[in-house]
Automatic annotation (TrEMBL):
Protein's organism: Oncorhynchus tshawytscha
Keywords carried by this UniProt record: Calcium, Cytoplasm, DNA-binding, Golgi apparatus, Guanine-nucleotide releasing factor, Membrane, Metal-binding, Phosphoprotein, Repeat, Secreted, Signal
Bilayer topology: Peripheral membrane protein
Family membership: Belongs to the nucleobindin family.
GN (gene name): NUCB2
Domain EF-hand, chain residue ranges per copy: 197-232
Entries under Pfam families matching the protein: EF-hand_7, NUCB1_N
The protein's name in its UniProt record: EF-hand domain-containing protein
Key word Thylakoid present: no
Gene3D superfamilies per UniProt: EF-hand (1.10.238.10)
GO CC annotation: endoplasmic reticulum-Golgi intermediate compartment; extracellular exosome; Golgi apparatus; membrane
Compartment(s): Cytoplasm; Golgi apparatus; Membrane; Secreted
Stretches for region Disordered: 145-181, 309-361
Residue ranges with Low complexity bias: 352-361
Biased composition (Polar residues): 312-322
């Protein structure tokens, strides 16, 4: 169910719970024999009632530790924000993967909430990643354009010419094989595995790249298969090659292959799914792969809206700074007025303020 770091803020808790549940033979069998749709519908969670006492006791302990961890994090965040109470909805969001009304014992509802939260969050992961990368690319372009504005005409032309040269250099690379295709896997078989492409065997390939020997190719193992393709396009320390874009390309490839091969949507590729995919037309006669430079991350309209948003944010920040400056000046005027009143009444002034007495004649 969970084979690698998910990136979720409760990843450690999720993995520890699953690890301990898999130590129970009854639950382990149910986990491996239940399809993803039934897991999402809560059928697996009900099997918690049949788990042994020792595992249940450990799950209770894990839950208490996780509740304490969350409470500590929330307290630290409140302290960092000056002691302000957190928004109630935000607070509940932090606890939505468990039944926080019962902080002591791990029950069926806890497992159900954990599974539901994890599956929903993981399904949304790629979409969030797309949005973050889009923002990265738009900010990169925005900063480039802002830099050009600060140059004189001659230097601006030189910079634009250099930018175009870098783009052409990056685009000048060998053909990129369609991820997950026969051509792409045969290249891995030859270059990484050191085997004759004419002897390519899908079953052997699967076993070679199931590096942890659990009978599945997980997302991490799948992403490792694209390294040779990525090395055709990206080299570290070259101005024209952006390593953030390289990682996005790797994740795009993984997402594409998972969509094609992972038929039960459990984020794992079984041997059966893999072998089935090798009989498809997409495997034998794939379309050409559209790389990042051929598939821009944003449209002109999205870039325009992004720059308008940045301008609005800058305007709001300037207005806030202006308001704060006015408040500061007003407080200083009030303090001066108060000091003058105290001087007239011969009252002591605040520390740091000196009373100027008339010189004696």
């Amino acid at each position: 169910f969970v084979k690698k770091d998910t990136g979720l803020h409760y990843d450690r808790y999720l993995r520890e719970v699953i690890d301990f549940l898999e130590k129970d033979q009854h639950f382990r069998e149910k986990l491996h024999n239940t399809d993803m749709e039934d897991i999402k519908q809560g059928k697996l969670a009900k099997e918690l009632d049949f788990v042994g006492h020792q595992v249940r006791t450990k799950l209770d302990e894990l839950k208490r530790q996780e509740v304490n961890r969350l409470r500590t994090l929330i307290k630290a965040k409140q302290d960092a924000e000056g002691g302000h109470e957190m928004n109630h909805k935000v607070l509940l969001k932090q606890f939505e993967y468990m039944n926080h009304m019962n902080p002591h014992t791990f029950e069926v509802e806890d497992l159900d909430k954990l599974i539901q939260s994890a599956t929903n969050d993981l399904e949304n992961y790629d979409q969030k990643r797309h949005e973050e990368f889009k923002r990265y690319e738009m900010m990169k372009e925005h900063e480039r354009k802002e830099h050009l504005k600060n140059l004189d005409e001659e230097h601006r032309k030189d910079e634009e010419q250099h930018y175009e040269e870098l783009r052409k250099k990056h685009a000048d690379h060998p053909k990129i094989n369609h991820p997950g295709s026969q051509d792409q896997l045969k290249e891995v078989w030859k270059e990484s595995d050191g085997l004759d492409p004419n002897d390519f065997d899908p079953k052997t390939f699967f076993k070679l790249h199931d590096t942890n020997g659990d009978s599945y190719i997980d997302e991490q193992e799948l992403e490792a298969l694209f390294t040779k393709e990525l090395e055709k396009m990206y080299r570290p320390n070259l101005d024209e090659d952006d390593m953030t874009e390289m990682e996005e390309e790797r994740l795009r490839m993984r997402e594409h292959v998972m969509n094609e091969v992972d038929t039960n949507k459990d984020r794992l590729v079984s041997l059966e799914e893999f072998l089935m995919s090798t009989n498809k037309k997409e495997f034998l006669e794939p379309d050409s792969w559209e790389t990042l430079e051929q598939a821009p991350a944003y449209t002109d309209e999205e870039m325009k809206l992004f720059e308008e948003q940045l301008a609005q944010e800058e305007s709001n920040l300037n207005q806030k700074n202006s308001d704060l400056q006015k408040q500061k000046e007003e407080l200083e005027r009030q303090q001066e007025k108060l000091n003058a009143q105290k001087a007239e009444l011969h009252l002591p002034l605040p520390p740091g303020h000196q009373q100027h007495l008339p010189a004696s004649s």
